[in-house]
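User: quick one
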Amino acid sequence: MSKRVVLSLLVASALSTAAFAEEPKSGGVINAVIQPEPPGLMVGLVQNGPTQMVAGNIYEGLLRYSPKLEPLPGLAESWSVSEDGKIYTFKLRKGVTWHDNKPFTSADVAFSIDFLKQTHPRARGNLAQLDKVETPDDYTVVFTLKQPFGPFLGIFEVGSLPMLPKHIYEGTDYKTNPANNTPVGTGPFMFKEWQKGSFIRLVKNPNYYIKGLPHLDEIYWHVIPDAAARAVAFETGKVDVLPGGSVENFDVPRLTKLKNVCVTGAGWEFFSPHSWLWLNNRSGPTANKKFRQALMYAIDRNFAKDVIWNGLAKVATGPSASTIKYYTDKVTTYDYDPAKAKALLKEAGYKGEKVRLLPLPYGETWQRWAEAVKQNLQDVGINVEMIATDVPGWNQKVSDWDYDIAFTYLYQYGDPALGVGRNYISSQISKGSPFNNVEGYSNPEIDQLFADGATAFPDSKRDEIYLKAQKILTDDVPVAWQLELQFPTITRCNVKNLVTTAIGVNDGFRDAWLDK
Amino acid sequence: MLSFIAKRLAKAVVVLLAIVVFNFMLIRMAPGDPAMVMAGEAGASDQIFVTQLREKFGLDQPLPVQLYRYVKGIATLDLGFSFRQQMPVAKLIAERLPATLLLTGTAFVISLLLGVLFGTLAARFAGTWADTAITILALIFYATPLFWVALMAILLFSVSMDWLPSFGYETVGANYTGFAHVLDVGAHLILPATTMGLFFMATYARMTRASMLEVKRHDFVKTARAKGLRDAVIQRRHVLRNALLPVVTLAGLQAGTLVGGAVLTETVFAWPGIGRLMYEALLQRDYNLLLGVFVVCSAMVLAFNLITDLIYRAVDPRIEFAS
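Assistant: Done. Structure below.
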């Protein structure tokens, strides 16, 4: 079969070389913060943020991604796609072993796919177009799709599709396997110790398949539940790394002004955290398109960006973040214009009905933001009632559609088919999840566009489809897009090369080193 | 005395059962369940995922069945399995208990000793500048929010002076042993134990002062004075001893809550204790873990109430056990 090589190892090597401008030094220990404490480290079973952050050192995926979301070699050293876009052939690295010294082979890949389809809701969705997995030899894996799936090469990072050891899990009850407490991966660091409530300790994998890596001897992940205490731990030199979101936003400017402190906003390109207000399209004032448009004009998003988020954000223009594929800003835009908002409210026939606003219970920054939005809405005459919840209560209310306006932010996973469509297509209207089409927006044209966009091949066709979808959505305003969020990673300046890929700290500390 | 203890124990079992049932129902009235929380944390979820979790945790069963299973477990001293931490609840509590007892026990001792001492001094020198100073300080410590005191203590002693560690139970990675380890843990203990102790010290001081002033007015004190006893003896033997009963009551109540830890102190100082475990379990709707902590804490409160009654007898021999 004629094949087209998508990206060669040579290009990847060149990218990696560019990142190593300084000569790395070996040895040393990094202390980082993790919050909240992860429930487990077996990333095939637990997919929350802290788990992925720690487990990204232990486990690996077939691919990694550059900040421009181009695939880079991971456990696969090369890959190719058939001309019809339905067959993907991966060549695995040779000489890779699990932390218990058993060899990593294509059988592990096939097993992992089967495992994750049972336990990993996002992988289950990403693999919906997968017809079969074949392993013609120990180092070749062939994925055959039912139909082309545009973002297929974008689903192989460690959090989305981690490789799991077949020899440990095959024939066992995955959820109760004792190995879940002592995770075994192929990654640059091995699990060593976990004192619950205090720290997780990882040590260097001496048999890592890339010679000279990792540079560090150990990583300690400290569990510090209070945001102010985390900031102090960094300030007093007890920790070296504050991954994005570890401290309250208003502490960031203070910490980054300290001596020998460096900051980067990179490493979030794949996730692209995008915030918006869910607007209940089913009933109440928010069911009216003009009311929803009025909200967009009523909210001063630049104020939120500059004051609430200290400039660590970008005003969102629509359903896609500017960092993901097929983004366009050639859409209907909504600048802060209270007069226009009032006029639209009048056209919508709004009579001052009470509107329930649910803040996101993720800390002080989010609370302040909700208060600012409430003030904006009251200024144009909207009667707002703030409903306080904790995280489980928020999940429950949003999943049960029991709200009028609700704050949220979600990851976009680099591609509209992976992280955008789910919030707007009508097949995703289903109670029980705070991540799907929670607002209840239903538009057959949008359904068709996202269906076509996911399966269009080659890529050039997708561009046109998603451009159209973004235009329709920004006109309909099913939700009120707010900000593209930035969660800066703050480190001591002697921590080098920590963030090198599109998933940043979540990709592990493989390339990081300490300049002593 | 034995029959008194046996009767109190029998009552305690009934009370404990009532507490378990009440808490079991109360927790389930809060919105959201562990499956929803874990699905929420996964960054993506579908109905299959939530259903899988509910089945795994037994949350798909009717509430009476869940309650029956839980009570049956408690009867065999099985506190169940933590949904989120993926560990037996008893093991989790046992892991955190030493740290909590060290923190709360130290705070308890500091607060009791200093509280009674300052309360006695304030009563002895009532109306003088010493009394005023102690009363004002006690009022400040009593009224100031604990988390604020904690943060100010961290700013002063950790950030500005760099004298004491700001978080944790020990220096992670230092691998101290023997006396060096004791010193290391001690250094980590100073700020949280003192912060927590200040509040209780204030309550003991106020209570002791008020109680001693009350006792001082009684006739037997006048008699003792008329007999020509030295003031120190009167204060110690007649006034303080009689004034201690309400302090013992208060101490008994506080001692019962020691196992429950200190949510705020443990959170601010990242102290790996039961209080934090309970707080996190509540936020994550980790029903079994939360109930497990409640059961252990309730049992301790009941036990300390019994011990307090026994101490009453020792402090004041006039008190007799109800037969």
